[in-house]
Structures are given as structure tokens and as C-alpha cells.
Amino acid sequence: MPTNFIVGLSSFESGWFDNHNVALNNLWGLTQGGGNNIHFSSIQAGNNYFVSNVGPFIQGAQTQAAFFKGLQAEGYNSVNPNYYPTLANRINNIQSWGQACGVTF
Amino acid sequence: MRRHFLVGCLIVLWAASGAWAQTSVKSIDHPVYDNGPYGYQVTLPRGLTYIRASPPSPNHGVSIDLRSGAKLWVDASYTDSSTNEEEADVVTTGCRIDYKRPATLAGQSALSLRFTCPASGNSRGYTEVITFTVHSQGDRSLADYQVGLRVYGSDISREDKVLFGKVVGAFHFEK
Questions:
Q1: In sequence order, which ranges of B45-134 are alpha helices (DSSP H)?
Q2: What is the domain count for chain B?
Q3: What's the rounded Cα separation, in Å, for the pair B70 and A53?
Q4: Annotation: CATH topology of A3-100
Q5: Do the beta carbons of residue B76 and residue B60 sit within 8 Å?
Q6: What is the DSSP-derived secondary structure letter of residue B110?
Q7: d(Cα A23, Cα A10) in Å, to the nearest integer?
Q8: CATH code for the domain of B104
Q9: Full-model pTM
């Protein structure tokens, strides 16, 4: 899967890993019953949870359409009809954000 | 045997629909929707059924399919925009702005926008009204907090406009 899909999703759901989500070790906006973001014991634990629970829906996606279809099937934001166009915009800008930070994908 | 087969088919259809990934809630039972991830709360008028994400999906807000065919939502999502004006440019890209007015949302400086977007690809054309504010709540990054209403191929009814105004007025940030 293209790296910018994953980086784009994570940055969008965690607010570029803001203080709120750093404290939770949650890069993905993943929630628990009741709706609050899950507090993981480590970033790795959060990533493992993402791989186990969301991974099967998006595994092998090579296009944005396939990636979004997988996220939709998992249930990522069915609330706002503008969610996926906005996420696409973020993913399309990851390359330029990376260049600004001296990172290439 | 036949009964088991039918039940199995229903389970497969239900799973394929993605319906398990969201929860339907009646506002008469749970009028207050509290969003911890983004730090806001909204009290929804009686008589509505709203949809929210189910765990472990990210929890951004709620949506309501109205009898008129319009869709209303309350949502918060992180944004790279640092001002309301900048966000307005992003959300209306490719669309015609019908009006843009200063507003308030939960006491924050906001914008109220109405814009019309043409059909593209498999998407129908639509008209949307949103009231939003780009705001940093507590220890979170800047997010776009918004109440939105979308209609396809028709004008927004008076009843829906009134409901939209009520929801905007019932939006609060966590203290």
C-alpha cells in the first residue's frame, strides 16, 4: 500500500499526533465503547490494534478508491459526506508535507 | 436447515452493508451527544434518529437523514487550515458560494456558508449549508467543528432550516 495513504490517514485522525493523542498513544483515532479514543499502553500497542482491526479492510489497497472502500466498510466516518474528499486532499498533500520536513516516501 | 441458511444469509448481508459499523440512536432516549475525542457536546431536538460510529471506528460526530431527503450532520475533524477563511476556501473548492456570513458556534467566531456544487463523476450535484469554526479545544490540534446540511437537487425546506438553526444553537464545547 502507498505510504502516503497510511500517513495521511494517521495525520488526519490524530491531528498530526497532537498532545491529546500522544497522551493516549493513539495514532488512528480508534475508539472504545462510549466513544472516547482508546488509551493504549504504547504506540506499538496502538499500531498492533490498528493492524488487527482495520488492517483486514484495507490490506493491499493500491488506489485511493480501494483504500476508501475498505475504510468505509470498517465504518470510518459515515457521518460527514465531506470526510473522504477531505481525506483525499490530505493524502495528496503528504508528499509536499514530507518534502517540507526533509522526508521522502 | 432452511432456517439456518436464511439466518446465515441475513448475517452475511448485514455484515456486507457495513451497518454494524454504525449505531442508530433516538434523540428522545439520548438527546445529548457527547464527543470526547474532539471535546464537544450537542443536544439534539426530540423526534430524531441519529447515526454515530461504532467502536473501534473514529468518533467524529453524528448524522441525521431527514424526512425531506436532506442530510444533517455535526462533525469535528482535524484540519490544516489555521483560519475560518482558509477553511472556507478548502471546503468550497469547485463550488459556487451563494453566501458567506460571519457567525458564532458555541461562542467562537465562525462562518456560515451556503454553496452549490455541480455533479461530478458518480456524485450528484448538491447544495450545502455549514456553520463552522476552526478551533483548538484543550490539548488538541486545530479542528473544523461544524454543523452541516446538504440537499440534492432541491431547495432547503423551511423546516430543515429551523432544525439546522436549533442544532447550531445547541452545540457546546466541553468545559
A1: 84-91
A2: 1
A3: 32
A4: Lysozyme (1.10.530)
A5: yes
A6: E
A7: 15
A8: 3.40.1000.10
A9: 0.90
The single-letter code of the amino acid at B28 is: I
The three three-digit cell numbers of residue B23, written as one number: 449505531
The closest CB to that of A31, out of B51, B58, B143, belongs to B58
Instruction: Kindly list the distances between the CA atom of residue A38 and the CA atoms of A31, B55, B77, B104, in Å, as whole numbers in the listed order.
Output: 5, 9, 17, 31
As for the ipTM of the complex, it is 0.93
Give me the residue label for grid cell 488492517. A55
- Cα of first residue to Cα of last residue in chain B, in angstroms, is 56
> Which residues of chain A lie closer than 8 angstroms to B75, CB-CB?
77, 79-80, 83
Tell me the CA end-to-end span of chain A in Å, nearest whole number. 12
Chain A contact for B82 (CB, 8 A cutoff): no
CA A59, A65, A70, A75 torsion-angle sign: positive
- Which domain, by its residues, includes B94? 21-173
Q: What is the pLDDT of residues A5-54, one digit of tens each?
A: 999 999 999 999 999 999 999 999 999 876 899 999 999 999 999 999 99
Spell out which chain A residues touch chain B, with contact meaning CB-CB distance below 8 angstroms.
11-16, 18-20, 23, 28-38, 49, 53-54, 72-83, 86, 89-90, 93
Residue A21 C-alpha cell reads as: 493523542
* Secondary structure (DSSP) of A76-93: ---S-TTHHHHHHHHHHH
Mean pLDDT computed over B158-166: 97
